[in-house]
Every structure is written in C-alpha cells, then in structure tokens.
Amino acid sequence: MTNERLIEKAIEAREKAYVPISGFKVGAALLDSEGNVFLGCNIEDPSGIGVTNVCAERCAIIKAVSEGFTDFVKIAVVGGEEELIFCAPCGACRQYMNSFSPNIKVILFSDNKINEYSLQELLPYSFNETF
Ligand code: ZN
Predict the structure, then answer these.
(1) In the chain, what are the domain boundaries?
(2) What is the CATH number assigned to the segment(s) 3-122?
(3) Distance 34 CA to ligand 1 centre (A)
(4) Average pLDDT for residues 88-99, to the nearest whole number?
(5) CA 35 → CA 7, 29, 31, 32, distances in Å?
C-alpha cells in the first residue's frame, strides 16, 4: 500500500475521533505485514482525566493486537482541528510501536507533503528487549 493511500485511510479514521475536550482530531492507519489495515482515532475521556485518553496510534495498535496481528510495517498519522497540521506521535505511542515493531515506518503529513520516518529517527536510544 502506498504512503498516500495510507494517509487517506488515516484521514478517514480521523473523522471518528471522539474529542469533546480538545476538539483536536487525530487519525491513524496501521498496515501490518499481511496487508491488513487497522484504523484508529484519538478518544478522550469525557471526565477530563488526561491519563485515560487514548491516542489514535495506540487505538489502531490495540485493535490489531486484539485481532491477533502484531507485525506492523507502516503507520500513517494525521491530526488537526480543521486543516491537517504536522502531528507526530507522542512518546508513549513511539514506545508502543517500538515494543511491537521497531522497524515500523511512520508516515506523517508535514509541509504539505507526505514524509516517511523510521522509528529509530523518532525514538533514538529506545527501550526494548535487546537491552
Ligand atoms: Zn500518543
């Protein structure tokens, strides 16, 4: 699947974001090694307790893992209230990706174009089982 198509899927996922507190919608589309795509959106806890919020990236990963898929190739992430803005995964999501698939590519929309990053670029000196 092309990066462009995966970004389109992330935009589609973004529409489902549940963000009564911030209004900031994020969508993610996760591609696994078998060609499956899992969509995720950010979900805010209406109580306003920040730690219980779920990011779009972890939402997609949790959906995949719960269906028995754990080998991920790429994840596209898009975010913004009206127009898309640069929206990089938070530290917790980077670590979560690393725990399952340290070689995953992260596809982000920035500077009005689609860019691909390695997780190593986004999470240098990461914690994993090799340490
Ligand atoms: Zn996150």
Answers:
(1) 3-122
(2) 3.40.140.10
(3) 24
(4) 95
(5) 15, 12, 6, 5
CA 35 to ligand 1 center in whole angstroms: 23
| Segment holding 34, helix H or strand E | none
22-33 residue pLDDT tens: 999 999 999 999
Residue numbers annotated as active site = 57
Per the model's pLDDT, the better-predicted residue between 128 and 92 turns out to be 92
pLDDT mean across residues, the chain = 93
Q: DSSP string covering 81-109, please?
A: SSS-B--PPPHHHHHHHHHH-TT-EEEEE
Contact between 24 and 55 (Cβ < 8 Å): no
Q: What is the pTM of this model?
A: 0.92
CA distance 123 to 94: 7
What distance in angstroms lies between residue 93's CA and the mean position of ligand 1's atoms? 4
